[in-house]
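Entry 14. Structure prediction run on the chain below.
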Amino acid sequence: MGFNTKAHWEDIYKKKMPNEVSWTQEIPQTSINFLESFNLSKGSSIIDVGGGESKFVDYLLSKGYENITVLDISKNAIEKAKTRIGVNSEKVKWIVADINEFVPNNKFDFWHDRAVFHFLTNKESILKYSKMVSSSAINFVVGTFSTEGPKKCSGLDIHQYDEISIRKTFETSNFKKVESKRVDHKTPFDTIQNFIFCSFTAT
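Output returned:
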């Protein structure tokens, strides 16, 4: 029997609190900065892929964005986020799905992915994801572990990236890199993880 990715993440979000997982951010400032750089209207369609318990959606709601989608493989993670947000969670479209099986039914003005993409480690899934983003996003921001970051997360292997490898993965004739930066993420355990963030836009 093969590894069950969904069961793995359901178990983590069932058993662990935000201060017990490395990816927690009280304020997702880098993601916020990239979003603001695109000067989107409040009605823009925004998707947070692998949103989990991230507080990025809290920021979007606080700023009055009206067309928000959060996708995560874990129902437990999404239910925790909905409980935290309360009545405002009704303003968000929540999707429980494995990104490998997700089929977007509309184009998004802003596609945000912090720390989902690096869990795709085989060429087929990486190519499938890059094609999905380029055909379904007008603006795209991805954050992954850099070549100086961890090689595993939550017990799973990840794929490290630098600026060149991210550009090769996502740049096409109609999808160009805008900005990239390395960011040190301080975990709740006071350790440092180095990420690289890269933004792209349709041309």
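The chain has one domain: 44-202.
Filed with the rest of this week's runs.
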